[in-house]
Amino acid sequence: MESTCEADPCILVLERDHPTRELILATMCEAGLAARSWQPTMMPESVRVVVVDVEEPKALGVQRLQQLREQFHRARLLAISGRFHIPPGTAMQVAEQMSADWVLAKPLDLNELLHQARRLLTESQA
After folding, report:
1. Please, is 58 exposed, middle or buried when counting C-beta atoms within 10 Å of its C-beta (0-12, 13-18, 19+)?
2. First and final C-alpha spacing in the chain
3. Is the pLDDT of residue 7 over 70?
């Protein structure tokens, strides 16, 4: 059974790996953040942050992020991936190259994930 929180604004979690998705959702909900996995009835304007797993090669990952930006135009994008390493101090440059607002490498540091999700949620409401 998937973890969800029923509050707006929400964080949309797009992660293909079921255990990882459940871990992200449960961690965010336990921290008091409204996090949900994709549901066809979801209203795009309620989504403020999209946590998206970018497994594809860089060009396809950028294309996916651009599509999400069009679909969820008010949302900030937090890309996560196990396919690249982010040297300390370069997350913002990698994010800019990928058209994301921030990037995190797997394995995820859940405290950093929560910190960045909260920061992007606050920015999206400004």
Report:
1. middle
2. 34
3. no
Close Cβ partners of 46 (under 8 Å, ≥ 6 residues apart)? 8, 9, 10
Cβ atoms within 10 Å of 85's Cβ, excluding its own: 9
- List, for residues 11-33, the tens digit of each pLDDT value: 999 998 899 999 999 999 999 99
Q: Edge-to-edge, what's the strand order for the sheet holding 47-53?
A: 35-37, 10-14, 47-53, 76-81, 102-105
Measure the CA dihedral 112/85/82/25, to 10°: 10
Are 20 and 12 spatial neighbours (Cβ–Cβ below 8 Å)? no
Tokens at 124, concatenated: 């999206």
Place of tokens 């961690």: 27
Q: How many residues does the chain have?
A: 126
pTM of the full structure:
0.84
With residue 4 as reference, give the H or E element that holds it.
none
For the stretch 51-76, pLDDT in tens is 998 875 455 677 888 889 899 988 99
